[in-house]
Protein 1
Amino acid sequence: MLTLFSDETEEAGKTYEKLRAGLIRFFHFRGCCDPQSLADETFNRVASKMSAFRRSDDVQPAAFVYGFARKILLEHLRSPRNRESQLEVVQVPDRIGPDPANDAVDEDHAHLQKCLAELSEKDRALVLEYFSRDRSEKISLRKNMAERLGCSSQTLQSRIFRIKAALRTCINRRRISAT
């Protein structure tokens, strides 16, 4: 796969590392909880589709890789498990000894719990209910929620979008103040 980036091994390795760091930032700044795995998945898919890329075309290798990253991001954001992990209040089991890999996730969950507590009762209940179902159940739930609130589905989505933006801002603020 490194031949995609350059014919020289050292230069290709540097380009790979630079792209991987960029992908991790790409996924991190879009709220993904495991950006390293998503960056690795991006490279796995690029490697499986190497035959589709021709260096003679006017397509830059970075653009080719980020094209895959955008698709993987969409898949990740659509996955029901991701939605639950972003908004569900999770009880973390006690563990024996420190685990640095889980500390960041634990910290994010703690930030999320505190930020949910800062929301008004109405907004907190709305966002938790909105993300409480999966697949076909969520469609009917959200339709019923919109009817109950006396608004359109688009209006409900806009409200949820604003609440999620406020949660993201709160979580990021807490991350920064924790460091």
Protein 2
Amino acid sequence: MSLKIQNKKSGNLFVLSGPSGVGKTTLRENLQQRIPGLQFSISWTTRAPRAGEKQGKDYRFVSLRQFENNRENEEFLEWARVHGEYYGTPKAPIERWLKRGEDVLLDIDIQGARQVKKGKPQAVAIFILPPSEKELKKRLVHRETESVQKIRLRLKNAENELLAVKHFDYTVTNREIQSAVDDLEAIIIATRLRVRKKKP
């Protein structure tokens, strides 16, 4: 019996999503430190930078006109209008990394995550849950980056966003950062070890 082993394979696409204030960015940064070589795709947005955010590191902050040009040219893997601002994920670098066999991590809103999952069913979609609504509100307030009106809008939107959990592959509750990162790491390891079956 001859056994043919195929080493060449495309990378995995991991999508982190959840309500605003749930801690996606903190979890993503800790996960990148834990797992070297995990490529991160920087999203584009039309919103203004928050305190401490840097151009090209946290987001690529662009004008509405520039965003619309890229959208019309179909250069986004996904895009959505969230809390009155536009967000989008550039397609080209992700396709390049996946083709080279590198794993890619996205940190995007729920609308965008569902778009990615629809276009790339093999993507691993992970929904980050808050411990409670009370804790979510506390995190948004303590972040001190938005007005009271915007916090209210985000909390109102979170009620509907939590209903989208059924469209995801995994849930991770962010009660404590290191424990949540442990869960995310386990998902990534399991995905990397998964046998990929060919379609009949």
